[in-house]
Fold each of these.
Amino acid sequence: MRAVAKSAEPEIASAPWYSPAWIEEVARGAPPAFDRAFIRWRELYRAACEQRDAARRIVDDPGLRDRRQKEMAEQREREARREIELLLNRAQSTEADFYTYRYLANEGFIPGYNFPRLPVRTLVSGATEAHAIDRARFLGLTEFGLGNVIYFEGRKHRVAGCVMPAGGIEARISRTKLCLACGYIHPRDEAAADVCVHCGTRLDASTMEFPQALFEQPTVRATRWQRISSEEEERAREGYHVTTHFRFPAGLPARDLALSEGEEGEPLLEVRYVPQAEIWRINHGWRRSADHNGFVIDTNTGAWQRQSDDDDEPNGTTPRAVRGQIRPYVSDTRNLLLVRATAEERDEDFLRTLAYSLRRAIQLDYQIEEQEIQVELIGSEKQRRIILWEAAEGGIGVWERLIEEPGAFAGLARTALGLLHFDPATGDEKRDWTEKCVAACYDCLLSYANQLDHRHLDRHGVCDFLVRLAGSKPVKADGRTYDEQYAWLRSGPTRPLHSSVRFSITFTRESSAFPISPNTPQRPMYSFNPISTTSAVRSPGCACSSTGRITRARRYRIVGPASLSKIGDTASS
């Protein structure tokens, strides 16, 4: 592996994830990663066997006289046996859903760009055999959501339940804090945070949401359905209330870019590129619901239960152990681009139009397909941003070029002006387009994918801004770059921060990955027994930047020697 990496070192040496230790980590992590890749298969196989055995016991029960119950048990047994045949790949076909190499590619263990990585699955029983339908994670969250209708082989199927994980549902339930100001997510152990890690907003009842029962979208079962009422059709058409959130990776620094019309001018656009960020999508319930407080599940059978105002269960069963407020979610790693228009206050229509204008311009300038980039708005008020991520498997490498090439965003603005039927140089409207395109048309902004936003799109609202952006130039960010900061720290072991405070830091390139996890001191802090020293610890509190000015980009707090016991210990104030 080292020989292969060495041959490609000129190309990968600058990648943020590459280091000499990375090769050893990959080699040591391969066996447990191979084992983890089969966790989902084991759960599916175990659940199918349990369903088969439970149905068989009902069929063989001599004391049960209810013929309808026995017929339904026989049907469940047939479905379970079909699922087992599917999981064991008895068809001996390379096109089967659980062909070994296809399955490992889907689970992300081996490369497989022809198949969706870590897909969401639904199991559907056909006339003679079971089928597994795969969808990409972000699409499958809604397409295979509770009660949704699936059309397969000319028949209607409805998602009725999920495959329960081994050990029950409680082990898979987690809680999280969602910052309503910027959209950042604080999952699991980070849910104890009082201040948003990204924007510094204090998290209270007015600035956060605190769901207590997030459940990663499992494999679901869809049952054949003869009649679907008009109310159910309407509810499925309206869809779910789904929110998008993001989280930055540990150890990989974000890269920032500011664009303004001149050296002294106010910034027009602030851009942040985050490689390998986590994108989370959470299903809060039906859009027509009043509270958006999730769903109800029978923790014994995995059947999604009806809310009190809906009709009865289709199979007539009575739930024995019900858990409410369940919010299914999916997450994946994607390269992320956050864009904020800073010149002046912008309304919602402006931001939506700008978002789709930039996406269309990126499609043309970099020759990529519409479905390879996803764009949304995230956050609120001053933290309202455009969020773009690479939806294509394996990424497309566009965000890094936008950050590195000085005239990239100015070029996008000119391309967008041309798309919106304006002269890229002057912003004047092109001849004959005044009546052809009043606000937006399918030649510029409209598409099938953004039809829910059509009423918000108005090309005239972004024209002036794009003209200014076309003449903008990158502005050097305040403070030092990563390399400059490293050189500054190496130039002298101590630097004055305040008349009574001095830093003593031994700083090496291998141990200086930013951002570091909360409440973790940089290591090694010192290699001697200090008489009086301080430690820089990342914290949700305020902080000093490398130039000594207060900043929110990297937050640290100062802790005294009483809080430090030895090198590498977690400090607390």
Amino acid sequence: MKGKLQIAGAVILLLIIGWLFTNHQANANRRAKLAALQTGLTNAYDKAVASLTPRPDSDTLITPVLLRGILKVEQESRLSMMPSFIRPEDVLISLGAVPNGSTNLIIVVHFEKALFYGIDGKRGCRKVSGQELSAWPHQPLTETSDGRNRG
């Protein structure tokens, strides 16, 4: 009887170790994907600011047209500036122009399940709550300002 309990205990221990390892790997993968997304967002912001004329100051506006040009869809479902796991339909952009240097959101990406991450006019990446998302005037990247789908 004692031997069966030891075997059962060893099996349970192995299952727990396996679960912990799998959970750790999943979290590491999620962190890597989030880092890639943040890099894509900051690269898109940097490219937008670099293209502002006459110079990128607080009076300059980052427009939806500018963002669309930077995040243009390449090939069938690939975006420039973003990691490959982000699809065009996952990207939301500001409905109106955003002053450079403001805390207003300019781009938000549906990261996974109900998680959204965005970047603001100060180059700050952050998690976007559902309440903030619903209050933010935005449009899908794949839709024109008049509500038609791009395609």
Amino acid sequence: MPASASAPAPAATSAHKPRTWPSPQTAAPAQTPSLVWARASRRNASPHLALCMVAPVLAFLELDDVYRAGACCRSWYAAAFAWRKDRLRAHGVPRRLRWRYWESCARVDWLFSGTTVEAEFERCLDGRCGLGALDATGTEGEILRDVTRTFPRDDFFSARSRAGQDMLADVLRATAVFAPGVNYCQGMNYVAAVMLLACRDEGVPRPEARAFGLLAALVCNLDMRDLWRPGVPQLKLRIFQFDRLLRELQPSLSSHFRSVGLTPDFFASQWFLTLLSINLPRHVLVRVWDSLLTDGWKTVFRVGIHLLRLLEPKLKDMTLEDLGLLFKTPDGPVAASGLPPAAATAGSPASAAVDEWVRRAVSLKGVSTRALVELESQYVAHILAQQLSDNPDIHGAVAFVDRRVAALVREEISRLDGPVRADVGVLRGRIEHTERALREARDVFVEEAREFIEVQADIEELQEAKRAVLDQIRSLSELGDAHEDDFAVLQAKVESVEAQLVEEGARFGGVLWRTAQAQVDLEEALERKKVFSEQLVQIVQQNEAMRTRRMKSLFRELNAGGGGAPTSAFASGSGSASTSASGAGGAADG
């Protein structure tokens, strides 16, 4: 082969040609960027090289193309992931892609892989749609009351326009049916309302079904189940984590709160239950949710602490009454922080100020997933120490609780709570059924009592009319100048009144029996409700006592084992739990 056949083209010639990306068939393997990075990886090159190589390309791509590029190889995925997080923090997801991005992060398609969101939504509604389809009691009664109080100043949810309220009621009721262990919790209404508004703004078809899919994915895939299920058990953990982070990152402000008697649950509970949906203006909230669905819970902690950091000079001069007035209004802290309003055009000073505010909030240093996990272990030890502080036999045992042992303790407590949750659900269903029967019995009793009073009044009127006719007959007899015809007319009146009295008497007997029966049914319904309520309270109390005894037993074994995992506490668990327990014990011994 001639030498010129394999030689590269002269630089002068290639300079006048448009530069094209080499195709996989013609380019040498060493020329492709993926193989260049693969060879650099094998030489233990810095991972920053991938970002330097790929980031200039990503800057010219749309967000969905970035996802496709990240699927090419591991290095491109790392670069695309890092670029995506920086892009989200700086500018947020483009509006036209936001809903698809939220559904992708929440894994909505995976949750409804066997069906479609629309089909599952219709199945959960079961043909009952709108606000008027809700019952006045039980879970639907709570939804009915909260829907009418959700964003009443927004035209979409106002009483004049029932469309938004009907959609919101359908979303919440379908979610309660889809996730029966959660049912409904106050706070879900605001989260679902923001989803509906986002669907409306982006022109998403079937907004109520798509909002239902995302809300169900939050419950099932993104760790919202324990926060929203009855009793909000995860809320205390989040408040504990927030309090500890505030002490670490803003010690002066945390000390001031403690000195005036203000605890974080006074203002932070609403932040977690509503995911900041009623505390931030919507143009900022959707940007925060972009990061929330990407980074998880730490976004809520970061935004909350960032907000308090901005307000710290003002908050440190306030008394408890002033702080109460400030935090009483949901958007009070945000208004006091000087957050810029929504900008009409991108790139304007107001838009840049909003971008900077969100970037600083969601990038706050000191709040990480690892820190939240460690604080969760501290919370378990803190709660167990409180519950077991009255037992001198296990004093100091909680000092040996590490993350793995704490996870085993939580698993054991969850195993104990499983049957109780089932029993509580059954009893709640019986109580709701009894309440409906009680309402029906009360309505029947009221109706029968009303008829009883009417019949009694009719009988008294007829008796009064009979007495009046008899008095006329007696007067005519005393005068002696009455004609036979007058006596006949009066006697006919007496007979007619007596016939009516007989009919009303028979009716009175039937009404009296039905009224008595309705009263018996009402009293029986009241008694059944009382019995079921007492059983519910008894089951909950027995479960609390069982949990306390079990935790004492677990920590006696922890104390006897020198800080290792209990030897027999989790004998009924899986093999993986036993392996974790052994590792935890070895770590403590070392």
Amino acid sequence: MRTRDTTLVGVANLLGRITGMVSEVVMSAVFGAGKVTDAYYAAFRVPQILRELLAEGSLQNILVPALADAERKDGLDGIWRLANAFLGVLLLVLGSTLLLFFFGAPLFVKLVASGFATDVDKFELTVGLTRWMSPFLAGISLAGFVAALLNVRGRFFGPALAQNIFNLLIIAGCLAGPAIERATGLPAIFTLAAVTTLSGFVQVALTVPPLLRDGFRIRPNLGGHPALRRMFGFLGPALIGIGTVQFNFLVESNWASTFGDGPVTYLMKSFRLVQIPLAVFAGSVATTALAAVAVHVARTEERQLGDTLNRAFRLNAFLVLPSAVALGVLADPIVALLFERGAFTPEDTAGTALMLQMYAWAVFGICVHRIAVPVYYALGDARTPMWNSIWAMVAKIPVILLLTRVLGMGAEALPLSHAILVTAQCAQLMAGLRGRVHGRGLLGAHLRLAVASAVLGVVAWVVRDHLHVVLACVVAGVAYLGVAAALGVLELGPALRRGSPGLPPTVDRDSEDALRAMAQGGVRIEGDRVSTAAGSWRMVAAGGDFRFEPDGAPAAGELGGPVAALLRAGRPPTLQGFVLGDRVWHAAGDVVQEGDAPGPRIPIPPG
């Protein structure tokens, strides 16, 4: 996992969350929180569930490791052959699903929001919106397919940035909807449904050109591919594993529909706020970690795999724990700042803030789940997430009944049930990965970060009635960083210093360490052994790829000069050797030899 890639994806996701929040603010001001917005969110729920399952969930988690393995075995042509074979099957599935979705809209609405059946107008509005948005699934699934191809080619920023298209079109639809209604009589909410559908296809149009430039030709076929059987063998368990979160949403939205006008909207808007740390932090960590994990698994690099997982979970905790606490403690002022204007009333603010406080307990678990499940798939284990999800789905309704019927809670019980179950799921998933996550102090680091986050919560509670919410967040954040530094868990700085700038995620950590050590000077090279004052490594070549393996005690030498990583062109490029001064060592098949070789050269800065 490269922190540079994580940062770029995080920036793109942050932009997506900003534009997404702006779209929610505009939508709240135009439509408020009531019958119309409940109908829109309920109608969007089914394509959103299928989107997560087919596009951003199972498709990404299964396709990325398979494509990485295809590239290792057959190079770039192997990626394109597998991609077209998979695309043929995907188009067939999407066509069948869309027909079922369109003609079965009334049944889907009853599944998502059975409480609407008592209000005929609200039910019919939801059915109509569902049909208008049914093609959205095709566009966003194809966008997910393209994103998987770009990710395995080492391109993360573009696909992550494309999500802004959806949000920008939603903003445009909200602003144009009332004017179109006055001109044509078409309810404004249907304009919003139309731009929702359009957004997926626009994302495809914007992300396909980089693939075409790389040599991809869109030729879907049903001729089969050796890897497809293994991929589809994972599909059933993967759908169940990824479907847990979506099942939670389905049950929660259905239950919320029985509480009258408003709770469905409160639920969706509060979860939109929860998605900020999910997408910006956990999403960016998971996206780049999955690419690195897939490479390490394909190369059977256990140590590098463990280091990657350790860094991913530590960085996730550093970013997500304080975010969860802040969302819970400052829920009321945050919701008021963002949504309370126009048609969105103070009563709507109170209802949404209560949901957000309950969801805050789920934030850390949701983010850990987002990282852990794809790791299991990359390791070739789809059954553990599947069974983990099955028991959580079985327990969902009993937990809600306990909270509502026994403890007397209202709609706020829905997100709280989510928190209880996802926390239990993550405990089991992390226990299963314990032997895989290398490095010291992972549990201790989490406990110290929890202490720092608790201090943040206390500070935020004290200042929230005296400072503007933005300033309160800044003050509480400074307190968190100070305590984290005092406790020795200020993870962001060390994380950003790991790895040399510009190196692709295929370069393992041992090779990075060797290159960095050589950049300090004092190098000795004897045969296939490289030694410095910081350590010694053996040069290894395999199939034209080059890497360093730790070998023996440090031993300083007299060689020096500028050091660069010699890469083999591709997406992502791979390490094929290194440059020391004016000398070059590179992999020639399965042999390391000295002599010039073509390829990009990435300077390794000293220090």
